[in-house]
Amino acid sequence: MFSKISRFNAALAVCVLAPSLAFAHTGVGQTVGFAHGFTHPVSGLDHVLAMILVGVLAWQLGGRALWLVPTTFISVMAIGGALGMMGISVPFVEAGIAFSVVVLGAVVALGIRAPAAIAAGVVGLFAIFHGHAHGSEMPVAAAAIAYAAGFMLATSVLHVAGITIGYLIGKISEQQGAIVMRSAGGIAALAGIGLFTGLI
């Protein structure tokens, strides 16, 4: 029991400390790890849509949600990544990832104005699934710290892209912006259903 807790704490520390430690050393493991970690979130439609939608949602809610929602996602994703790296199973990972696209797309499409804390809690729940997928698919030759830094940085970039998309849509006239936002969220939700059912 103590050994499992120690391994979990070590893996979690790797994920949390990754951004500051990733470039402290050079070598094949770190290079391979960072490259694989960075490409993992951007290589799957499910991850890309969910990450961008988190950013769009953060922009829609505004205020402290603008930083709280993405930060919560990345932080909790680190926990999921640590679980995946350790080989600790989490049920329904693929279904949870697909469902995250459906829910986040629907929330954006409907313009639901949830309190920042609730929004952070919802994205945090989904972050466990995304993080676990990243962590469990880490290549054997990859350095864990660099790999974690890669997928956390890529996720951050996608969140910023989502916030930027939300801002740009918001610059459109109020009526047209709402239509574009609802349409984009609806299309994303439909894509999530396709991913959930295996049609995509």
Q: Could you characterize what this model shows?
A:
It is built from eight helices and no strands. The chain is mainly α and 200 residues long. Helix 2 packs parallel to helix 7 (144-171). The radius of gyration is 17 Å and the shape is globular. Mean pLDDT is 82; it is low at 8-29.
List the topology elements.
Elements: H1 2-21, H2 28-42, H3 45-61, H4 65-86, H5 93-110, H6 116-136, H7 144-171, H8 174-197
Which radius of gyration do the C-alpha atoms yield?
17 Å
What's the shape?
globular
- SSE ordering: HHHHHHHH
Instruction: Describe the sheet with the most strands.
Output: none
User: Count the strands?
Assistant: 0
Amino-to-carboxy terminus distance: 41 Å
Mean pLDDT: 82
Class of secondary structure makeup: mainly alpha
Percentage of helical residues?
over 70%
Please give the oligomerization state of what you see. single chain
Counted by DSSP, the helix tally is 8
**What are the segments in which pLDDT stays under 50 over at least 5 consecutive residues?**
8-29
In terms of DSSP E residues, the strand content is under 5%
Attribute tags:
mainly alpha
Quick description:
The chain is 82% helix and 0% strand.
